Amino acid sequence: MGKRWAEVLRIVGIGWYIAACILLGTLGGRWVGQKLDGSTSEVIFILLGLALGLIVAFFGTYRILKAITSENRNKGEGNS
Asked: What is the Cα–Cα distance from 27 to 23, expressed in whole angstroms?
């Protein structure tokens, strides 16, 4: 039962990772836009930060899921 909860928490962690990447990218873009000149560039940098956050979230999630699936394959091979 403990291993099952570890897997569930790992999946929940992926969700938090995605949310954090998107939030930090967006807030970082907003911060940079405000520091430069305000409203004109703020929207552009918010969108750039959002895009960067989405890219980081996608590739990070891919790496995490790749590690999880390779772990599961290795466990399956050991039992055969």
From this structure: 6
37 vs 49: CA distance, rounded Å: 16
Distance CA 46, CA 26 (A): 5
Is the separation of the CB atoms in 44 and 33 below 8 Å?
Answer: yes
Determine whether 80 is exposed, middle or buried from the number of CB atoms within 10 Å of its CB (0-12, 13-18, 19+). Answer: exposed
| 14: region left, alpha or beta (phi > 0 left; psi from -120 to 50 alpha) | alpha
Q: What is the pLDDT of residue 80?
A: 47
Tens digit of each residue's pLDDT (9 = 90 or more) over 65-75: 898 888 878 87
Backbone dihedral region for residue 37 (phi beyond 0: left; psi -120 to 50: alpha; all else: beta): alpha
pTM of the shown model: 0.79
Q: What is the spatial distance between Cα 14 and Cα 58, in angstroms, rounded to a whole number?
A: 10
